[in-house]
Amino acid sequence: MTSPLSTYREGSLHAALKAMYARPGDRVEASIEGFVVDVVRPDELVEVQTGSFASAAAKLRLLARNHRIRLVYPIVLERRLVRVDVDGAILYSRRSPRRGSPVDLFDQLVAFPELLASPNFSLDLVLIREEEIRGPVPPGARFRRPRQWWRLDRRLLEVVDTLRVVEAADLVRLLPPLPDPFTSADVSALAGCPRRLASRAVYCLERSGASGRTGRLGRLVTYRLGAGRGQPAAIVATDGTGPGDQ
Protein backbone atom coordinates (compact mmCIF):
# COMPACT_ATOMS: atom_id res chain seq x y z
CA MET A 1 0.00 0.00 0.00
CA THR A 2 1.38 3.42 -0.99
CA SER A 3 1.74 5.87 1.88
CA PRO A 4 -0.05 9.21 1.47
CA LEU A 5 3.24 10.82 2.47
CA SER A 6 4.99 9.54 -0.66
CA THR A 7 2.40 10.72 -3.20
CA TYR A 8 2.38 14.43 -2.37
CA ARG A 9 3.15 16.90 -5.13
CA GLU A 10 1.99 20.38 -6.02
CA GLY A 11 1.98 22.96 -8.78
CA SER A 12 2.33 26.74 -8.69
CA LEU A 13 -1.39 27.36 -8.11
CA HIS A 14 -1.51 24.95 -5.19
CA ALA A 15 1.63 26.49 -3.69
CA ALA A 16 0.24 30.03 -4.05
CA LEU A 17 -3.04 29.17 -2.34
CA LYS A 18 -1.23 27.34 0.44
CA ALA A 19 1.01 30.37 1.02
CA MET A 20 -2.07 32.61 1.07
CA TYR A 21 -3.61 30.61 3.92
CA ALA A 22 -0.47 29.92 5.95
CA ARG A 23 -0.06 32.21 8.97
CA PRO A 24 3.01 32.79 11.13
CA GLY A 25 3.34 29.84 13.48
CA ASP A 26 1.35 27.44 11.30
CA ARG A 27 2.91 24.14 10.28
CA VAL A 28 3.05 23.54 6.53
CA GLU A 29 2.93 20.10 4.90
CA ALA A 30 2.66 18.44 8.30
CA SER A 31 1.68 14.84 8.97
CA ILE A 32 -1.67 14.34 10.71
CA GLU A 33 -2.94 10.79 11.23
CA GLY A 34 -0.72 9.53 8.41
CA PHE A 35 -1.79 12.19 5.89
CA VAL A 36 0.10 15.24 4.66
CA VAL A 37 -1.97 18.35 5.44
CA ASP A 38 -1.17 21.61 3.69
CA VAL A 39 -1.59 23.96 6.66
CA VAL A 40 -1.95 22.88 10.30
CA ARG A 41 -3.19 25.42 12.83
CA PRO A 42 -3.81 24.85 16.53
CA ASP A 43 -7.58 24.80 15.96
CA GLU A 44 -7.94 23.96 12.27
CA LEU A 45 -6.52 22.03 9.32
CA VAL A 46 -6.46 23.68 5.89
CA GLU A 47 -6.33 21.49 2.79
CA VAL A 48 -5.93 22.95 -0.72
CA GLN A 49 -7.44 20.94 -3.56
CA THR A 50 -6.96 22.14 -7.15
CA GLY A 51 -8.08 18.90 -8.84
CA SER A 52 -10.58 16.10 -8.33
CA PHE A 53 -12.24 15.84 -4.92
CA ALA A 54 -12.56 12.07 -5.33
CA SER A 55 -8.85 11.57 -4.67
CA ALA A 56 -9.16 13.36 -1.30
CA ALA A 57 -12.52 11.93 -0.17
CA ALA A 58 -11.21 9.22 2.16
CA LYS A 59 -8.61 11.58 3.66
CA LEU A 60 -11.13 14.34 4.40
CA ARG A 61 -13.72 11.96 5.86
CA LEU A 62 -11.19 10.50 8.27
CA LEU A 63 -9.69 13.84 9.32
CA ALA A 64 -13.12 15.45 9.82
CA ARG A 65 -13.91 12.90 12.53
CA ASN A 66 -11.45 14.44 14.97
CA HIS A 67 -10.40 17.81 13.49
CA ARG A 68 -11.89 20.99 12.15
CA ILE A 69 -10.90 21.08 8.50
CA ARG A 70 -11.27 23.75 5.84
CA LEU A 71 -11.09 22.73 2.19
CA VAL A 72 -9.84 25.42 -0.20
CA TYR A 73 -10.91 25.06 -3.83
CA PRO A 74 -10.24 27.55 -6.67
CA ILE A 75 -12.98 28.43 -9.16
CA VAL A 76 -11.41 29.83 -12.34
CA LEU A 77 -13.42 32.84 -13.52
CA GLU A 78 -10.93 33.64 -16.26
CA ARG A 79 -7.99 31.72 -17.70
CA ARG A 80 -5.12 32.80 -19.93
CA LEU A 81 -3.59 30.02 -22.02
CA VAL A 82 0.15 30.17 -22.66
CA ARG A 83 1.76 27.73 -25.09
CA VAL A 84 5.53 27.14 -24.83
CA ASP A 85 7.98 25.10 -26.88
CA VAL A 86 10.33 22.42 -25.60
CA ASP A 87 12.79 25.10 -24.44
CA GLY A 88 10.14 27.09 -22.57
CA ALA A 89 9.91 29.92 -25.10
CA ILE A 90 6.38 31.35 -25.43
CA LEU A 91 4.74 30.50 -28.74
CA TYR A 92 1.45 32.31 -28.10
CA SER A 93 -0.80 33.58 -25.33
CA ARG A 94 -4.57 33.99 -25.49
CA ARG A 95 -7.58 34.22 -23.22
CA SER A 96 -9.70 31.08 -22.92
CA PRO A 97 -13.35 31.58 -23.91
CA ARG A 98 -14.50 29.40 -21.03
CA ARG A 99 -15.72 31.13 -17.86
CA GLY A 100 -16.06 29.44 -14.50
CA SER A 101 -18.84 29.87 -11.95
CA PRO A 102 -19.37 28.90 -8.28
CA VAL A 103 -21.90 26.35 -9.59
CA ASP A 104 -18.89 24.39 -10.88
CA LEU A 105 -18.28 23.30 -7.27
CA PHE A 106 -21.04 20.70 -7.58
CA ASP A 107 -19.09 18.84 -10.26
CA GLN A 108 -16.55 17.91 -7.57
CA LEU A 109 -18.63 17.98 -4.40
CA VAL A 110 -20.46 14.78 -5.42
CA ALA A 111 -17.47 12.98 -3.90
CA PHE A 112 -18.56 13.86 -0.34
CA PRO A 113 -21.60 16.18 -0.06
CA GLU A 114 -22.51 14.62 3.30
CA LEU A 115 -19.46 16.26 4.90
CA LEU A 116 -21.30 19.59 4.89
CA ALA A 117 -23.57 18.14 7.56
CA SER A 118 -20.50 17.88 9.82
CA PRO A 119 -19.69 20.86 12.09
CA ASN A 120 -16.00 20.06 11.54
CA PHE A 121 -16.04 20.69 7.78
CA SER A 122 -16.15 23.90 5.74
CA LEU A 123 -15.24 25.05 2.24
CA ASP A 124 -13.61 28.16 0.83
CA LEU A 125 -14.34 28.79 -2.85
CA VAL A 126 -11.55 31.07 -4.06
CA LEU A 127 -12.63 32.84 -7.24
CA ILE A 128 -9.51 33.46 -9.30
CA ARG A 129 -7.92 34.43 -12.58
CA GLU A 130 -5.15 32.07 -13.62
CA GLU A 131 -2.56 31.35 -16.27
CA GLU A 132 -2.30 27.84 -17.68
CA ILE A 133 1.05 26.85 -19.18
CA ARG A 134 0.93 24.23 -21.95
CA GLY A 135 3.87 22.50 -23.57
CA PRO A 136 4.77 19.59 -25.87
CA VAL A 137 3.75 16.09 -24.85
CA PRO A 138 6.84 14.25 -23.56
CA PRO A 139 7.96 11.10 -25.38
CA GLY A 140 6.16 7.97 -24.20
CA ALA A 141 3.12 9.75 -22.75
CA ARG A 142 -0.18 8.15 -23.68
CA PHE A 143 -3.63 9.68 -23.97
CA ARG A 144 -7.02 8.40 -25.06
CA ARG A 145 -7.03 10.90 -27.90
CA PRO A 146 -3.99 12.15 -29.85
CA ARG A 147 -2.74 15.54 -28.69
CA GLN A 148 0.28 17.74 -29.24
CA TRP A 149 0.42 19.49 -25.86
CA TRP A 150 -0.27 18.92 -22.21
CA ARG A 151 -0.66 21.15 -19.16
CA LEU A 152 2.63 21.93 -17.47
CA ASP A 153 1.47 24.26 -14.72
CA ARG A 154 -1.25 26.60 -13.43
CA ARG A 155 -0.29 30.00 -12.03
CA LEU A 156 -2.39 32.29 -9.88
CA LEU A 157 -2.82 35.76 -11.39
CA GLU A 158 -5.45 37.29 -9.11
CA VAL A 159 -7.87 36.42 -6.32
CA VAL A 160 -11.20 38.07 -7.13
CA ASP A 161 -13.26 36.93 -4.15
CA THR A 162 -13.72 34.12 -1.63
CA LEU A 163 -17.04 32.45 -0.82
CA ARG A 164 -17.45 30.54 2.45
CA VAL A 165 -19.53 27.38 2.53
CA VAL A 166 -19.95 26.38 6.15
CA GLU A 167 -23.23 24.47 6.11
CA ALA A 168 -25.58 22.85 3.63
CA ALA A 169 -27.75 25.95 3.36
CA ASP A 170 -24.78 27.85 1.93
CA LEU A 171 -24.88 25.60 -1.13
CA VAL A 172 -28.29 27.01 -2.00
CA ARG A 173 -26.79 30.50 -2.20
CA LEU A 174 -24.52 29.35 -5.04
CA LEU A 175 -27.62 28.85 -7.19
CA PRO A 176 -30.22 31.30 -8.51
CA PRO A 177 -33.64 31.36 -6.72
CA LEU A 178 -35.38 28.04 -7.36
CA PRO A 179 -39.10 27.30 -7.65
CA ASP A 180 -40.90 25.25 -5.00
CA PRO A 181 -40.72 22.42 -5.75
CA PHE A 182 -37.85 22.23 -8.25
CA THR A 183 -36.18 19.67 -10.52
CA SER A 184 -32.76 19.29 -12.08
CA ALA A 185 -34.25 20.77 -15.27
CA ASP A 186 -35.09 23.94 -13.32
CA VAL A 187 -31.53 24.15 -11.99
CA SER A 188 -30.11 23.69 -15.49
CA ALA A 189 -32.34 26.37 -17.01
CA LEU A 190 -31.96 28.96 -14.24
CA ALA A 191 -28.22 28.47 -13.62
CA GLY A 192 -27.43 28.12 -17.33
CA CYS A 193 -25.47 24.92 -16.78
CA PRO A 194 -25.52 21.49 -18.47
CA ARG A 195 -28.05 18.94 -17.22
CA ARG A 196 -25.24 16.70 -15.95
CA LEU A 197 -23.97 19.45 -13.68
CA ALA A 198 -27.52 20.33 -12.60
CA SER A 199 -28.14 16.69 -11.63
CA ARG A 200 -24.98 16.75 -9.54
CA ALA A 201 -26.14 19.97 -7.89
CA VAL A 202 -29.49 18.53 -6.79
CA TYR A 203 -27.71 15.36 -5.62
CA CYS A 204 -25.38 17.46 -3.44
CA LEU A 205 -28.28 19.49 -2.04
CA GLU A 206 -30.13 16.33 -1.07
CA ARG A 207 -27.16 14.44 0.39
CA SER A 208 -25.98 17.43 2.39
CA GLY A 209 -29.45 17.91 3.90
CA ALA A 210 -30.23 21.21 2.15
CA SER A 211 -33.21 19.71 0.31
CA GLY A 212 -35.42 16.66 0.22
CA ARG A 213 -37.45 14.74 -2.34
CA THR A 214 -41.14 15.55 -2.62
CA GLY A 215 -42.29 13.36 -5.50
CA ARG A 216 -42.08 13.25 -9.29
CA LEU A 217 -42.97 15.42 -12.23
CA GLY A 218 -43.05 13.03 -15.16
CA ARG A 219 -39.65 11.34 -15.22
CA LEU A 220 -38.01 13.97 -13.00
CA VAL A 221 -37.70 13.85 -9.22
CA THR A 222 -39.00 16.99 -7.47
CA TYR A 223 -37.26 18.58 -4.48
CA ARG A 224 -38.03 21.19 -1.84
CA LEU A 225 -35.40 23.30 -0.11
CA GLY A 226 -35.20 22.68 3.60
CA ALA A 227 -37.10 19.40 3.39
CA GLY A 228 -33.97 17.44 4.26
CA ARG A 229 -32.80 19.53 7.22
CA GLY A 230 -32.56 17.78 10.51
CA GLN A 231 -32.09 14.41 8.83
CA PRO A 232 -28.72 12.67 8.98
CA ALA A 233 -26.88 12.79 5.67
CA ALA A 234 -26.08 9.43 4.14
CA ILE A 235 -22.51 8.35 3.44
CA VAL A 236 -22.12 8.07 -0.31
CA ALA A 237 -19.71 6.39 -2.68
CA THR A 238 -16.14 7.69 -2.82
CA ASP A 239 -15.71 7.39 -6.58
CA GLY A 240 -16.93 10.93 -7.24
CA THR A 241 -20.23 9.89 -8.79
CA GLY A 242 -23.80 10.32 -7.71
CA PRO A 243 -27.07 9.05 -9.09
CA GLY A 244 -28.76 12.42 -9.61
CA ASP A 245 -32.16 12.44 -11.25
CA GLN A 246 -32.73 11.81 -14.92
The helix fraction, in percent, is 10-25%
Count helical runs. Answer: 6
Rg calculated over all Cα atoms:
19 Å
Total strands: 9
H/E topology pattern: HEEEHEEHEEHHHEE
Spatial shape: globular
Major beta sheet summary: 7 strands, mixed
Count of all domains: 1
Average pLDDT confidence is 87
* Strand composition percent: 25-35%
- Which structural class matches the secondary elements? alpha+beta
Poorly predicted sequence stretches spanning 5 or more consecutive residues = 1-9, 229-246
* Termini separation: 38 Å
Core attributes:
246 residues, alpha+beta, two-stranded antiparallel ribbon
Question: Can you describe what's shown?
Answer:
The chain is α+β, with helices and mostly antiparallel strands. The protein has one domain. Helices cover 21% and strands 34% of the residues. The protein is built from 6 helices and 9 strands. Strands 1, 2, 3, 4, 5, 6 and 7 form a 7-stranded mixed beta sheet that branches. A two-stranded antiparallel ribbon has the order 8-9. The longest helix has 14 residues, at 195-208. Residues 1-9 and 229-246 have low confidence and may be disordered.
Break the fold down into its secondary structure elements and pairings.
Blueprint: H1 12-21, E1 27-32, E2 35-40, E3 45-48, H2 57-66, E4 69-84, E5 90-95, H3 105-109, E6 121-136, E7 149-165, H4 168-172, H5 184-191, H6 195-208, E8 211-217, E9 220-225
Helix pairs in contact: 5-6
Give the gist of this structure:
This protein is of the alpha+beta class and 246 residues long. The protein has six helices and nine strands; from the N terminus they run αβββαββαββαααββ.
